[in-house]
Amino acid sequence: MTFKNRKRLNRFIVLMIVLVGMVICLFPIYEMVSTSLKYEVDAFSLPPKWIFRPTFENYRNVLLSNGFGRYFFNSVIVALSTTFFSVCTGALAGYSFSRFKYKGKKLLIVFTLLLRMIPPVILVIPVFVIWNSLGLANTRIGLVLVYIGLNLPFNIWVLKTFISEIPRSLDESATIDGCSDWMVFSRIILPLIAPGLSVAGIFTFRIAWNEYILSLVLTNRFTRTLPVAVSLFLTDAGTEWGKITAIATITAIPAFIFTFTAAKKLIMGMTAGAVKG
Amino acid sequence: MKRNKSPYLFALPAIAVLLLVMVVPVVSGIRLSFFEWFLRDIRKEPVFVGLRNFIDLFGSENFQTSIRVTLVFTISVVCLELFVGLVLALLLEDGLPGLRFFRTVFILPVMIAPVVVGVIWKFLYNPSYGKINYFLSVLGLKEVGWLSDPHMALISIIITDIWQWTPFVFLLLLAGLQGIPSDLSDAARVDGANYLQNLIHIKLPCISGVIGITAVLRLIDAFRGLVVMFIMTNGGPGVSTEILSLHLYKTAFTDQRLGKASAVAVILLGIITLLSIIFITKNMKDET
């Protein structure tokens, strides 16, 4: 075998492995989406019907089901307000951590890093108890508050990194021109860290939209979010897999959108911290 | 540097929220682990019982099983994901036509809600109309009771976790490999190193930091997660898939024992804090 042929063969094998990997990666998602578009007879038929007549019946049933509109609305409100507040407070703190020297700063940074790892399930009991006594249980505000805190360590840390990359001379000259710290932050820093804000925003939105355990415990039938609704469908609907996969697909829509519009930012956010640069 | 109050003011909102929703709850959770308190009697005062919750836990068979399940789960997913992710990253590091598309597709499982992942795989594993048993029967293999067989359920969950998280590991390791200065491998090749020598003496040492951080990150996440088990098996059959975080949840909201559940939380917190300290020291070392 010539060298060139061998190289081609290698490339072919690599390509095959990658294709198999892609099929394994995508098949479960395809299975969810396709089941949601099938009539019940087609969904359960074995051997499976790879070609079938699609229907939106399952989606109609989900959209018209009791409470769906409310759960969807709750999810949107909760995810958007969490994203807004968590990214804003994160940027402020990131600015403070990156630009100023003061007593206790290092301790605060290590502290926020430690908090980043806290499992939500550890917070469930105490937050449930405290929110009940503060009247925040079963409210969207209560849920948003926890989510802001849950996302803050990551946001502070990502935005601090972005701010540290801006040359200091920029804000120093602005200060000499008479800008206050607040003006430096809002007029110079914020516009320059726009890419960082969107990385933090996407990751925060994802966690707030996907989170399950806290929402299960801290909301009621008026304030619950989509993931909890999915799990209720699973117990209520029993074997109605058409409806279950339809609501699961709806819940996955933001994941699809982010993946196909912001892949680069997502990879940036995921690798930030583990890989330098 | 200026001496003014603004650095504190900028950090204040974040610190206040973190205190309210994380620090205060964690502290009160630790306190609660020394009390007996039932969910149904939540209006009554908790009763101080000292270390009894912890003594109960270590004597409880379910807790011991849960610890074992947790260790098997976390160690196997981290090892398998690192192995598969590393092989994929090594295969793809030189780039392929369409690599960007592959990378995009690989992000999807990470982005999708754990609840949805649980739903998908519960359907795939379904004994009567799940596709996995169908594929096995097409290949002439025996059907498997994926989620109903106590010996298989944890393996099924591990497979699901590998499906969801290997892409993440792959992306981190790929970024690590691509960060190796190319003159290093080039120099080795000029000196006559073959692929394997290059891998063992150049590439792996160069990305050992990234491998370590990825491992710790995944380990922490594996300890944190419970939703996929919650949806797919609710810890069963028996307690064969009840990892520590799910054990915590069920102790609190099924058995209604808030104090005992808080003791589980303290143990989980101890493990996570230990792992986090490893992560932070590794991370800070890399940053300087």
From TrEMBL, chain A:
Q: Which UniProt keywords apply?
A: Cell membrane, Membrane, Transmembrane, Transmembrane helix, Transport
Which residues does the UniProt record annotate as the domain ABC transmembrane type-1? Answer: 72-262
The GO annotation for biological process reads: transmembrane transport
How does the protein associate with the membrane?
A: Multi-pass membrane protein
Recorded superkingdom: Bacteria
User: What is the protein name for this chain?
Assistant: Binding-protein-dependent transport systems inner membrane component
Question: Is Repeat one of the keywords UniProt gives this record?
Answer: no
Using the UniProt record, give the first listed, main subcellular location.
membrane
Q: Which GO terms describe its cellular component?
A: plasma membrane
Any stretches that span the bilayer, and where are they?
Answer: 12-30, 71-95, 107-131, 143-163, 184-209, 244-263
The family classification in the record reads: Belongs to the binding-protein-dependent transport system permease family.
Q: Species name for this entry?
A: Sediminispirochaeta smaragdinae (strain DSM 11293 / JCM 15392 / SEBR 4228)
What phylogenetic lineage does the species belong to? Answer: Bacteria, Pseudomonadati, Spirochaetota, Spirochaetia, Spirochaetales
Its localization reads: Cell membrane
Q: Which Pfam families match?
A: BPD_transp_1
